[in-house]
Specification:
metal-binding, flat, mainly alpha, 58% helix, Bact_CCA-adding_enz_type3_sf, transferase
Length: 168
């Protein structure tokens, strides 16, 4: 189903010569419309706020040319949200994740893949607290056992030589 939308989006881009931002916004609306309509019908404002936070400040988020708030409000317009609801989203102050890599280093977290996993774990905790946990509360969980260990790096296989080859 998703491939159909991307194919359709490619056709629209070719026919109408959309900019990359317009194409990305169109794909975003098409891919998220069903969940957005469900969240809107249930009155789930937290789903919308989580969408903004995930796109704007989650660890490893994609850098996009259009702000996440603009994209989410366009999605709200596409799902026929009321103007009051859109204003509520636009006026909501986007929270700032209080943890940075240096904070984790000072808490004893090793840099590299473990730091990324720890940052994601703490971000999820912060999100579950509805953005209420402060830096000290989050750092107290920086060495939790629930944080998975990164997979061990794979060693490159040695290139096999054919048995019949002659070294020259």
């Amino acid at each position: 189903m998703l491939q159909c939308h991307h194919y359709f989006g490619s056709i629209l881009w070719f026919v109408f010569q959309l900019s990359n931002v317009e194409k990305f916004l169109g794909e975003f609306v098409v891919c998220n419309r069903k969940d957005a309509e469900e969240a809107l019908s249930c009155g789930n404002v937290d789903w919308w706020k989580d969408m903004i936070v995930d796109m704007e400040i989650s660890p490893g988020h994609d850098q996009i040319k259009m702000s996440s708030l603009s994209m989410v409000t366009q999605l709200a317009r596409a799902t026929c949200a009321s103007q009051e609801f859109i204003t509520l989203l636009e006026e909501w102050p986007i929270p700032v994740f209080p943890i940075k890599g240096l904070d984790l280093m000072s808490a004893g977290v090793k840099s590299g893949p473990k730091m990324r996993l720890t940052l994601s774990y703490l971000f999820d905790l912060w999100k579950k607290s509805r953005y209420e946990m402060n830096k000290e509360e989050l750092l107290s969980h920086a060495l939790d056992d629930a944080i998975p260990d990164p997979p061990s790096p794979r060693k490159m296989a040695k290139k096999r030589r054919a048995e019949n080859s002659v070294n020259k």
